[in-house]
Amino acid sequence: MRTxxxxxxxxxxxxxxxxxxxxxxxxRFYDAKKVSxxxxxxxxxxxxxxxxxxxxxxxxxxxxxxxxxxxxKQSVKAD
Length: 79
Known about the structure:
By secondary structure, the chain is mainly α. The chain has helices at residues 4-11, 43-55, 60-78. Helix 2 crosses helix 3.
């Protein structure tokens, strides 16, 4: 466990003293945050998605997200 002095020293640490941020690009490594949600799917739909995800060696939630993202992109283009 760190002492109070060690924690204070860490809090006072400034990155600017050690790094040059003059060429930094804001948001360069930004990745949209994912949120947790609950949805109800028919059992046969879920089983199909899990099977397809397994065949593609990805998680079924990743597959669902990709399918929804594709639908979203197509809908935006149609408008």
